[in-house]
Amino acid sequence: MNFLDDLGTLHAFPNPPRRIVSLVPSLTDLLCDLGLEDRIVGVTKFCVHPYYLRQKKQVIGGTKMVKTDKIRDLRPDVIIANKEENTPEIVAELSCVAPVWVTDIETLDDLLKVIADFGVLFNCRTEAQKWTGKIEFGLADFKAFMEDKPWRKTAYLIWKDPYMAAGEGTYINEMLRLNKFANMYAGNPKTPGRYPEIIIQKMRIQGDPDVVFLSSEPYPFKDEHAFEVGRFTHHAKTVFVDGEMFSWYGSRLVKALGYFKKLQERIAE
């Protein structure tokens, strides 16, 4: 059968792939939740969910630096990648080893499409439909929970030296919108790009947020960073957040929705 991935690349699979290498931690998590753990033969060092997986599978490097020889030795039927997390060079190199299925997830609709695609590709439609149902039910419940909540101007920081924020066209921004956090760096002509470098001394004049989030990944922010950032806002709350809940697309969204409810309660205090 022929299939199109998110970049429009045509792949031919005579049978559902049995040997999977995943270069995307959040999608490794999803594949396991779809009942495909036994088919996974290779993962990255950042594939930390399920917690035991790296002890059972071959680790093939990181998301930006992979070990092609190790992947070739695994004889995969398909390699799962992502437009944001894996470089075009990696995709091109590994395409000589096996079909590389590239995902591109910026919105909730994108996420639901990937789950449906995996259901067809791996012949696990029933499990895919179950997870789609869980997500859709959870989203409806969360939107009802958020109905009377106010919008809050927000900055979501992901890196230091230089400081960087999540901007437009990112899954993080989609999660912020879902929570009625108006991202001051999304669509701001002074800070263009998906992950713009920012000057925290200009935070007041560029938007003066009500809330500043310091993500747990990819940079390990600490208390001194919160103090530094806080000096350059008027009265913003600076809050440490679990980066997985905002940036891991896949089945983890079900857990994220519960996390977001607690976060809303924290911010309202």
Protein described:
- The chain has 269 residues and is α/β, with parallel strands linked by helices.
- The chain folds into two domains: 137 residues, Nitrogenase molybdenum iron protein domain (Rossmann fold, 3-Layer(aba) Sandwich); 120 residues, 3-Layer(aba) Sandwich (Rossmann fold), CATH 3.40.50.
- 38% of the residues lie in helices and 17% in strands.
- The strands form three sheets. A five-stranded parallel β-sheet has the order 5-4-3-6-7, with helices on both faces. Strands 8, 9, 10, 11 and 12 form a five-stranded mixed β-sheet that branches. A two-stranded antiparallel ribbon has the order 1-2.
- Helix 5 runs antiparallel to helix 6 and helix 6 packs parallel to helix 11.
- The chain is globular.
Please summarize what this structure is.
The chain has 11 helices and 12 strands.
What topology does this entry show?
Elements: E1 2-4, E2 10-12, E3 20-22, H1 25-33, E4 40-43, H2 53-56, E5 58-59, H3 68-73, E6 78-82, H4 88-94, E7 100-103, H5 108-121, H6 125-146, E8 152-159, E9 164-165, H7 171-178, E10 181-183, H8 203-206, E11 211-215, H9 223-230, E12 237-241, H10 243-247, H11 253-268
Parallel strand pairs: 3-4, 3-6, 4-5, 6-7, 8-10, 8-11, 11-12
Antiparallel strand pairs: 1-2, 8-9
Helix pairs in contact: 5-6, 6-11
